[in-house]
Amino acid sequence: MFNFLKRKKNDVSSTAFRREMACRYNGIFIKYADERIDDQEIVIGKAGSISVRGGELIVLSSSKIIFRSIVDETDFSPLMSGDGVIVSGCDIENGGNFRKITLHFTSYIK
Known about the structure:
Shape: globular
Distance between the termini: 26 Å
Radius of gyration: 15 Å
Strand order of the largest sheet: 4-3-2-1-7-6-5
Strand content: over 45%
Order of helices and strands: HEEEEEEE
Largest sheet: 7 strands, antiparallel
Number of helices: 1
């Protein structure tokens, strides 16, 4: 009757969970992407998409790649509203620096 009580909570740091989340967001269109620097939210791109290719997560926006990281090393945190996700990891495209960006979808994921 209470089988849901026996389930383990998803381990957000596991490779399987990260790959599942990457597959979930693959092909999603984004309205805009922003990054928090100090106390300011800065829009870093508009009108783009999220894709997974060759084990890498690629965020394309404003006709350029704004974020690229290895899926197995990337953390995903869905927004509570369901209309976006916070992606954090080492950005290969920008010298391997750790970045945390927020991606806002054009439509809700249900």
